[in-house]
Amino acid sequence: MSDWELKTAARAVAEYMCNIRKGENVVVYADTAIEESVAESIAEAAHVAGGEVILIRYRTRSQVDMEPPSPLAAALQSADVIIELAAMFLIHTRALSSALDRGARYACLTGVTSDIMKRCIRDTEFYSKVIELGEAIAEMLRKAKKLHITTGLGTALTCDIQGRPIDHASKRIFGPKEQSYLGGQVSWYPRPESLNGTLVITGSIWPPDELGLIRNPIRLAIQEGRVVGVTGGAEAEVLKRWFSRYTNANIYNLAHISYGLNPGARLTGNILEDERVFGCIEVGIGAQPPHLGIFDIDRERDVDGHTDAIILNPTVELDGEVIERDGRFVHPKVVALIQSFWPAAGELQEMGP
What is the pTM for the complete model shown? Predict the structure, then answer.
């Protein structure tokens, strides 16, 4: 049975997000954790857009960032456009980095479901507004020097972002080596030595697979950009065991901090959607993708693990000016933009954390 909503979202991926042109070699890949209808719809949309499309499905790996099966690794090397759907993502692998170095452009929709496609992409009109909001937030961050994050449950983190990369990872991609991630996220990369304080994880965290939605807060003590303590209940113990699997101490590095900015996103336990919940803060810990080309900093990054954690209801200040209070945007510029896109702005913000 045809699913018009899914096909409409898939068309936005192929034509708006990836800008696939006639004759381009397109590789769409998904592991067996991904719904077949999602993979087929995106591959079909890429074909309709004019691409020479290969769809590859393979058995789900046991963990993220394992090198892909040889046939997929080979296909990536001749791709003009790569669309990743696999739940056990390949973002930090040598195979993907090599393909990007050769000039492929890359759209990351790791772990996407049909519901996420319908809620968070929808169609080109909705998706373009999500991208515009993200760029507005990114521009505010680029002009700032200091950032302060707090929550009522104990998060208190300060960092220096002046002159540091601000990555609006959700964008349209047109040419070689360009990358895009599901709309509704802006990331920043503070000076490691300036990252100090406490993060209290209240939404979700993944990996490890044993976690997801959080029932009891997990407290992370941060010192000069590294996790130096993990406390809480049983879930904190699971996270500690996951960290301990790695012999490389860089697994404890804070890789990035990100803003969630997609009004369609819900907190579900699927990290792809969770880290885009409207108004949340997401923290990445561990590996940093070498192909991003934005990290020139002060520590080795040769670790093959990465986890993402969600902080709900934050208060965010830029240079002492409050942008968001308890999970609701209050800065006049941001509020005006939200209201121009989605008139029921009050209701929309209630849909967030």
Answer: 0.86
Asked whether 200 and 153 are in contact (CB, 8 A), the reply is yes
pLDDT in tens, 70-120: 999 999 999 999 999 999 999 889 999 999 999 999 999 999 999 999 999
- 133 with 70, same domain: the answer is no
Q: How many domains does the chain have?
A: 2
> Hey, what are 33's tokens?
């954790």
Query: Which residue type, as a one-letter code, is found at position 190?
Result: P
78 shares its domain with 173: no
Tell me, yes or no, whether 114 and 140 share the same domain: no
* 274: its two tokens: 């969770």
Domain enclosing residue 18, as ranges: 4-120
DSSP-derived 3-state class of residue 282: strand
Angle at 287 between CA 30 and CA 88, to 5 degrees: 20
Residue 272: its pLDDT value, please?
A: 87
Residue 248: partners with Cβ closer than 8 Å, 6 or more residues away: 302, 303
- Mean pLDDT value across residues 251-255: 92
Tell me: the pLDDT tens digits for 114-159? 999 999 999 999 999 999 999 999 999 999 999 999 999 999 999 9
Q: Do 80 and 201 sit in the same domain of this protein? A: no
Helices 332-341 and 124-142: crossing angle in degrees, nearest 10, is 170
The closest alpha carbon to 219, from 211, 208, 227, belongs to: 227
User: Among the residues of the chain, which ranges form H helices?
Assistant: 4-11, 36-48, 70-76, 94-101, 114-116, 124-142, 234-244, 271-274, 332-341, 345-350
Q: Which of 269, 286, 295, 265 is nearest to 64 (CA)?
A: 286
294: three-class secondary structure by DSSP: coil
151 and 61 within one domain: no
Any idea which residue has 């692998």 for tokens? 93
SS3 218: strand
103 plus 161 within the same structural domain = no
Residue 42 binned pLDDT confidence (cut-offs 50, 70, 90): very high
